Every structure is written in C-alpha cells, then in structure tokens.
Amino acid sequence: xxxxxxxxxxxxxxxxxxxxxxxxxxxxxxxxxxxxxxxxxxxxxxxxxxxxxxxxxxxxxxxxxxxxxxxxxxxxxxxxxxxxxxxxxxxxxxxxxxxxxxxxxxxxxxxxxxxxxxxxxxxxxxxxxxxxxxxxxxxxxxxxxxxxxx
Length: 150
What we know:
The protein is mainly alpha-helical. It has one domain. About 50% of the residues lie in helices and about 5% in strands. The protein has helices at about 5-25, 30-35, 40-50, 65-80, 105-115, 125-130; strands spanning about 25, 85, 115-120. The longest helix has 22 residues, at about 5-25.
C-alpha cells in the first residue's frame, strides 16, 4: 500500500476507533469495519445469526486491506495504552455456535478479531459490569473478558 493511501486508511481507522471508544469505553474490530464503511450492518446481522460462515466473506474489500486496517487498529490501541480483552462471539440461533471471523479460521487471527480494546479510564465498576454483559448484538459471551496480552 502506498504511503498516501496508508495514511488515509489510518485516519479512517482512527476516527472509527475513537468514536467507538468514546461511545462505549472500548473498541472492537467490528466497530472499525463498520466505521470505515467496509462492513454493512445488515450483513453483520446475518453473520451474527450464523447465516454467514465467516465475517471476512461479507467485508467489502480484499483480505490484504482488511489485514492492513486491523494492523493500524492494533497500533492505534497500543499508542492509546488500551488493554486487550478477549470476547466471545456466539451466534444468535438455537445452535449458538462460536462465530468465525476469518476465511482461514487460524486461531491467532481469530483471537485478534475477538480482541476488544478497553480504555484504562473506565472505572473498575464499569469494567466489571462490562465483563458480565453479553457481547453487544451476539446474544452470548461476555462483552469483556480478562484477556491475552498482545
């Protein structure tokens, strides 16, 4: 990716991540993909219901651009001093299967997508409240779980 395009993408990723962080106290890869316009909310709902085999299938760009955006997102999170927390994503259907993000299903890639980046400014009480709530819009799994360091 040429430097001019990379900077434009970095700006879009930053705006989307900052908006999610301000609104919720954490930011996720889904927030970024929605915020930069690569993920349609209707397609996201189909994935959440288990009707799409993996999220990358419905993201409206190629895998190399998705990968670049996610690298920029993680870099932004590190610069902000955010804490990484793994989140469960479970389908909103009777089977309640674990939702898959990537074409490959590689555990490392899946873990990166499942990571929510949490503000250190959140009070301990709010962190605990978030940890006990289902992941927004999935119908399962805590929104924030004590996670892996990245």
